Amino acid sequence: MKLKIQNFAKIKDADIILDGITVIAGKNNTGKSTVGKILDSMYNSTNNLETKMRRARKLRFRNVLSSKLNYAGNSVHLSPAFIAETVDNIFESDDDNEVANILEDLVEYALPDNEIKDSMKLLKELISDFEEIQSIPDEIFTIAILSNYFREMFNGNMNNTEYLDTIARIEIQIKSGKNIIMFHNNTCFEYEFGFNPVSSSVYLDNPILLDKLNNTDVMRMPRRYLSEQEYNLYTKLAGERSSVEERAINEIINKEKLDEVFQLLNKVIPGEITYNQKYEYRTEKGKNGIDIRSMSTGLKSFAILKQLIMNGSLNDKDAVILDEPEIHLHPEWQMIYAELIVILQQKFDLNFIINTHSSHFLETLDFYAVKYGRKEICHYYLSEESDEECTFEEVTHTPEKIYKQLVDPSLLLAREKEKWEDEHEPV
Q: Are 234 and 308 spatial neighbours (Cβ–Cβ below 8 Å)?
């Protein structure tokens, strides 16, 4: 799989191979995080798009029904569950007459004491509302979804601020085809889908997100407090998309499949996250769990990975985007984390995209890739900035370019000390 980027934000040009483990290194403000966010947005905005559009139409009409029926004069209160079921029946029908009949029965039930003319007026309004929602062309709807998704992820800055008239173009290419999205003036204006992505992605840049799982308001209305990126991770961590039975079988299968992974994880985090009125970290030895907010940031980094595995939220070909994973970890834990990445890639055939500033982490990752026979699926890139534009050079076969850029700054202090000592040498 390849990700191609042109004129997106500060990125002038990027041609990134995504075939297992991809590492991007470079100085701050050279577009590393932008690549990861683009990939995450491409996956999650286009994944199951038809289902998302259908769900959005249903939700819109459900809100219309709830508002107009429950607040009409002399109305019978309709529960959200009843309205939701009615909307499901309406959208399952392909017959306009049947839709009209369902709505007519609903109005009669909800407004038993209303004048016939008032009921007929309301019925016509509801039919018109339904037709309006259904008449939105999929193409226009898709463009709006893509625009809003990327606008939220990038704070409305998809096109280069210096060259708003240029076309920003992103493309994911696999064997079966290409998915292309283009932006002008920070709005999607054209797209081309050559395949329907069945894989998903997860973006990990802030282990402290775990703390929000025990925020009561977030539990009730997560989208109010979380970005789309965060919400995606939140739902995977909370396991809200799967039933108890599904989580149970995922746990059994993954434990059998990932004995090696859990042996490694248990060196750092022997327990697991459980839910009992609130999310807790609990070990077999401990009688009582501790609130996950009390866990160290480094421990949370491992807890997130473990929770995603236990929930069955990581599947073959999924993308895992790690933004500076080493930042909260002691060098010893960096080694364990790097080994985890390689083993998980091997077991699940995942696509890891990793941004790092650490030569130690990259060297460790490279070693374990060799150890586990995954070196051939590793690709390294160096990001650089020139004239307010970022470019990416593949350095898989010349990694010394990365090491030079990452290691040289660490020598600055030694040079400064040497200079200072020379200047202050006793006469």
A: no
Q: What are the CA-CA distances from residue 227 to residues 35, 52, 118, 160 (Å)?
A: 18, 17, 42, 22
Question: 180 has which bridge partners?
Answer: 171, 192
Round to whole Å and give the CA distance between 37 and 355: 11
Separation CA 244–CA 176 (nearest Å): 35
CB 110 within 8 A of CB 118: no
CA 292 – CA 302 distance, rounded (Å): 12
Closest CA to 60 of 135, 149, 1: 135
**What whole-number distance in Å separates Cα of residue 150 and Cα of residue 228?**
10
- CA–CA distances in Å: residue 253 to residues 134, 246, 249, 351: 41, 11, 6, 21
Digit-coded pLDDT (tens) for 173-211: 988 789 999 999 999 999 999 887 777 889 998 888 777
The residue whose two tokens read 């050559």 is 194
Listed in sequence order, the residues at least 6 apart from 259 whose beta carbon sits closer than 8 Å to its beta carbon are none
Domains of the chain, by residue range, sit at: 51-134, 201-314
Which tokens belong to 400?
């010394």
pTM of the model: 0.83
Q: Residue 186: which of 222, 147, 231 has the closest Cα?
A: 147
Q: Per residue in 250-291, pLDDT tens? A: 667 666 666 777 777 777 877 777 766 677 777 766 667 788
